[in-house]
TrEMBL record:
Species this protein is from: Capitella teleta
Highest taxon of the lineage: Eukaryota
This protein's name: GATOR2 complex protein WDR24
Pfam family, one: WD40
Matching SUPFAM superfamilies: WD40 repeat-like
GO cellular component: cytosol; GATOR2 complex; vacuolar membrane
Amino acid sequence: MHHTILEGPLNCLALNRDCSQVVVAGRNVFKIFSIEDQEFQEKVNLRVGRNINLNYSASDVAWNPIQDHLLASAATNGAVVVWDLNRVSRSKQEHVFNNVHKRFVNKVVFHVHESDMLLSGSQDGYMKLFDLRKADVSSSFHGRDGVKDIQYNPSHYFTFAAALENGNIQIWDMRNTSRWERQFTAHNGPVFSLDWHTDEKMWIATAGRDRMIKQQNRVRNTHTVQTIASVAKIKWRPQRKFHISSCSLLLDFSVNVWDIRRPYVPFASFNEHKDCVTGISWKQNNPHVFFSSSKDSTLYQHMFRDATRPANDANPVGISISVHGSVAYASSDKLNSSTTPRSNSYSRLPAVWKRTPERSEQFMMVTSLLNEFEIINSAEAVEDFCMSWFIRSAREYKLSGRSMAEVCEHNAKLADSMKRHQIAQTWRMLKLLYCGKSKKAPPSPVATAINNPKTEVTKDTDAERTEKQEVKKEEKPDTSTVGHGIKNHSDFFFGDGDVDQAVYEYDSHRNMQDGQEWSLPSEAFQPRHEIKETSQPLDPLSENTKGESPSSVNESELNSKRNEQVALSAQSGIKQEILLTPPFNSHLSPWHFTTLVRDMLQSYAEKGDVQTAVTAIIVLGDRIKPHLDELHIEQWFMSYIDLLGRFEMWTRATEIIRMSGHPAVGALNQLSTTIHTHCSQCSKPLLRSGWLCDRCNGQLNVCSVCHLPVRGLYAWCQGCSHGGHLHHIRDWLKTYQHCPTGCGHLCEYT
């Protein structure tokens, strides 16, 4: 393998008749090299002259297969240039065909058996046949769309094929310039390249933007190779019936050689180029050597001994779990043979008569062992692998039509019914976070009793009453009125909301011993004083200065006030589980839970539960979408839609696409929406119109009442398959019950 680096990117290359020279061309390069054993030697530089213009820039080049001194190039300005290497002058341009194409030319090719016949294909949809003897256009063919590639059939003198931008392949006869001989749709999108097989007369290979390489036999598609990128060029490998080489238009910079019988892995790969490959050409007398040009300004000669074998690095085992819990396991036969010991009798057999298979034969001889396992006799295991919960959730989840609270509650109950309690809790948490309203806490009984003098603070139980009566007997008569005075007079008032803020749970007092005594001051209660009306509530800490913090208050004073409150509550019979403490005016910042919800959705998606992530995004909408990555949203929606498609839940998948609100996901409903019907008489696809066949000129979809083609809504009977215009069929069946064609079927309009 050797290569050479040129001055600029290369667009094409071509070999001469005996494969001893190669010509490469680009925007700023047009040179001829001789092919040596270890290097390329430059022979001619065609980009010379006084006035170098666009005629010296080529998008394609062809070498005459009969006269070795003639070249043809397709200029980027729409001209076709013929070059004669035998010219004595410095410039080798023989003739320039100007104004034959209105747009740039994509392909030029010489006839296989006629040296004076040159064919060109342009983006304007025309193919021109040049007669070099007259230096003029002899025939013109109109393909009705941009022509990407053309090739003469080496087995048929008058036949050539054209690859069009609309995905069709046209087979032309040079003797008939008015219409193609045959046309068929090969790809979903533009066809970039085609190539006739050198040995099989009916085989033609096509490649396009849909990342497919298809082998047609002019009757049907027999083999299809799926690649990872749009295919730009393809070439059959000489002396190998099933091998074809390809290069990509974008992304993939390697040249792959495929065996069409094993389409999922390349037979060989060549990864020397650093940019997109633009041309491939094989040595006709040597199937192990080919040449390639690239946009990285390099020309390579590849040897098959330098190729990488992707199949050798592939994983020899595979495992998959079906949607119903079945497990499939596949392993290579080589792996099985290496783990299975051979018998002694087999090892003693002589290997004299055994032929070592070639690499291509070994590549096709590879087989694998496939086993399928089903889980039985374990209801719990089957339930774990079964996807019934996914199907039911997809069908019964509510995503719109109700309030968010109702939707979350419905989905939570549905998850609970399937024993998916974590998912149910998730829906309820979303309801609480986004729909929960902050309700004001109910007033405490202490505050109610203090603010309402007519209401008793507590109700004494029988035991408490007995204990109080015993205490009263021992007490003096003048102290028996203390409780009565507190009970009937309200000497403590609090501002609105102060009681709620000053609730204090006395956890520290619960650990006190029952026998602990309280030390009271000399006077159990402070003397009564006049309460002045003020706008600010009485706050035990209000005496602090503005610059002081609550922690700077005298601790002894605060403790004494707390002891007074405890003593007051003990005398008045108030339960000590709730005490009043000085309110601390703490302003807590709001809780930003959006980050937590985002992490939760990402966690579900990473675990494989894209259903929960997608449905939550749809329900939350703009509350969560701005905080998620657009790429992640697209991936989750695509994965969920793919799962729905596997379960054949097409209607639900369409609803998810419609409610996604993502442009890339919403565009799925706009792709592949055209379905071409076929002629009922000749079975030809109806590409131009749906009511007239271009081949047999027969009218299709004729109304059974007016006998005219139906170009709008077509109503038909499922019993006899006759129909017509919607309003004609409706009016007919209002009067008659039988089919208007006279077939005798009793039709019904519903």
